[in-house]
Amino acid sequence: AVDIVGWTPGKAVPGLEKDSIDAVYISSGTAAVLGPKGLKAALKEAHRVLRVKGQVFLFREGPSNALPEFAPALFTESQSKEEDDMNFLELAPVRRQKKARAVTLPPELRRASSA
Description:
Blueprint: E1 21-26, H1 28-49, E2 50-61, E3 75-83, E4 86-93, H2 107-114
Parallel strand pairs: 1-2
Antiparallel strand pairs: 2-4, 3-4
């Protein structure tokens, strides 16, 4: 099933939890209306709600299909295509590894392991 959800810049989409959706589609018209700051906010929200194997489908008008400068921290480019004045990018979310917590051994084990 496909659910179409509207989004307002600066607001989380009600009911969409982290890692809860498979795909985000951003049309060229939407990208133009959002402008650079709004597109950045939209891609950040998309990154938050996408599942690990989710995808963003981004269409933009213009001569370049390059990722916006902030996007490589959030997405890798799976595929791109440029035709006439329209660009298509398929993006996969980058997931950061959680930092391992340091484990402190009790004093009696520290002495035993250093012997």
